[in-house]
Design a protein that fits this description.
This protein is mainly beta and 101 residues long. It has strands spanning 4-10, 17-23, 40-47, 50-56, 69-73, 76-80, 85-88, 98-100. The radius of gyration is 29 Å and the shape is elongated. The mean pLDDT is 82.
Length: 101
Protein backbone atom coordinates (compact mmCIF):
# COMPACT_ATOMS: atom_id res chain seq x y z
CA UNK A 1 0.00 0.00 0.00
CA UNK A 2 1.33 3.45 -0.91
CA UNK A 3 1.51 6.26 1.58
CA UNK A 4 0.27 9.73 0.59
CA UNK A 5 0.65 12.99 2.47
CA UNK A 6 -2.15 15.53 1.98
CA UNK A 7 -2.19 19.24 2.56
CA UNK A 8 -5.53 21.05 2.63
CA UNK A 9 -5.39 24.83 2.20
CA UNK A 10 -7.99 27.52 2.00
CA UNK A 11 -7.48 29.89 -0.92
CA UNK A 12 -7.91 33.46 0.27
CA UNK A 13 -10.84 35.27 -1.28
CA UNK A 14 -12.69 32.20 -2.49
CA UNK A 15 -14.57 29.30 -1.07
CA UNK A 16 -12.56 26.70 -2.97
CA UNK A 17 -10.31 24.13 -1.41
CA UNK A 18 -7.64 22.03 -3.06
CA UNK A 19 -5.81 18.94 -2.02
CA UNK A 20 -2.17 18.44 -2.94
CA UNK A 21 -0.88 14.87 -2.93
CA UNK A 22 2.65 13.59 -3.30
CA UNK A 23 3.61 9.97 -3.74
CA UNK A 24 6.50 8.97 -1.54
CA UNK A 25 8.72 6.32 -3.08
CA UNK A 26 9.74 3.49 -0.77
CA UNK A 27 13.34 3.42 0.38
CA UNK A 28 15.54 1.14 -1.70
CA UNK A 29 18.71 -0.38 -0.33
CA UNK A 30 21.69 0.44 -2.55
CA UNK A 31 24.94 -1.49 -2.49
CA UNK A 32 28.08 0.61 -2.62
CA UNK A 33 30.02 0.19 -5.84
CA UNK A 34 33.81 0.41 -5.57
CA UNK A 35 36.75 -0.10 -7.88
CA UNK A 36 37.25 -3.80 -8.71
CA UNK A 37 40.43 -5.59 -7.73
CA UNK A 38 43.18 -6.17 -10.28
CA UNK A 39 43.37 -9.37 -12.33
CA UNK A 40 46.45 -11.56 -11.75
CA UNK A 41 48.66 -12.55 -14.69
CA UNK A 42 49.41 -16.28 -14.50
CA UNK A 43 51.56 -16.60 -17.63
CA UNK A 44 52.78 -14.44 -20.49
CA UNK A 45 53.92 -16.46 -23.48
CA UNK A 46 55.81 -14.97 -26.41
CA UNK A 47 54.57 -15.89 -29.89
CA UNK A 48 55.37 -14.60 -33.39
CA UNK A 49 55.01 -10.78 -33.04
CA UNK A 50 52.57 -11.24 -30.14
CA UNK A 51 52.17 -12.22 -26.49
CA UNK A 52 49.46 -14.40 -24.98
CA UNK A 53 48.49 -13.28 -21.49
CA UNK A 54 46.70 -15.80 -19.28
CA UNK A 55 45.20 -14.23 -16.16
CA UNK A 56 42.71 -14.86 -13.38
CA UNK A 57 39.81 -12.53 -12.65
CA UNK A 58 40.02 -10.34 -9.55
CA UNK A 59 38.55 -11.72 -6.34
CA UNK A 60 36.58 -8.50 -5.83
CA UNK A 61 34.36 -7.13 -8.61
CA UNK A 62 33.65 -3.93 -6.67
CA UNK A 63 29.95 -4.74 -6.61
CA UNK A 64 29.45 -4.55 -10.36
CA UNK A 65 29.94 -7.02 -13.21
CA UNK A 66 33.28 -6.85 -15.01
CA UNK A 67 32.50 -6.53 -18.71
CA UNK A 68 36.00 -6.58 -20.18
CA UNK A 69 39.75 -6.45 -19.73
CA UNK A 70 42.57 -4.56 -21.44
CA UNK A 71 45.97 -6.25 -21.84
CA UNK A 72 48.89 -3.95 -22.61
CA UNK A 73 52.46 -4.77 -23.63
CA UNK A 74 54.55 -1.63 -23.99
CA UNK A 75 52.26 0.80 -25.79
CA UNK A 76 50.20 -1.84 -27.62
CA UNK A 77 46.87 -2.96 -26.16
CA UNK A 78 44.21 -5.57 -26.86
CA UNK A 79 40.83 -6.13 -25.22
CA UNK A 80 38.76 -9.17 -24.32
CA UNK A 81 36.01 -10.34 -22.02
CA UNK A 82 38.00 -13.20 -20.44
CA UNK A 83 41.41 -14.87 -20.30
CA UNK A 84 43.51 -15.32 -22.38
CA UNK A 85 44.08 -12.12 -24.36
CA UNK A 86 46.57 -11.99 -27.23
CA UNK A 87 48.42 -8.73 -27.78
CA UNK A 88 49.50 -8.57 -31.42
CA UNK A 89 51.73 -6.14 -33.30
CA UNK A 90 54.81 -6.61 -31.13
CA UNK A 91 58.34 -6.63 -32.53
CA UNK A 92 60.16 -9.97 -32.36
CA UNK A 93 63.34 -9.78 -30.23
CA UNK A 94 62.11 -6.79 -28.19
CA UNK A 95 61.41 -7.04 -24.43
CA UNK A 96 58.01 -5.81 -23.23
CA UNK A 97 56.45 -5.18 -19.85
CA UNK A 98 52.84 -6.38 -19.88
CA UNK A 99 49.82 -5.77 -17.68
CA UNK A 100 46.10 -6.58 -17.56
CA UNK A 101 43.48 -4.18 -16.23
Amino acid sequence: MSKFDFTVRFLSGSAKFFIAAWAIAPAVAMAAVTVPGAPTIKTATAANASAVLVFSAPTSTGGSAITGYTATCGTISATGTASPITVSGLTNGTSYSCSVK
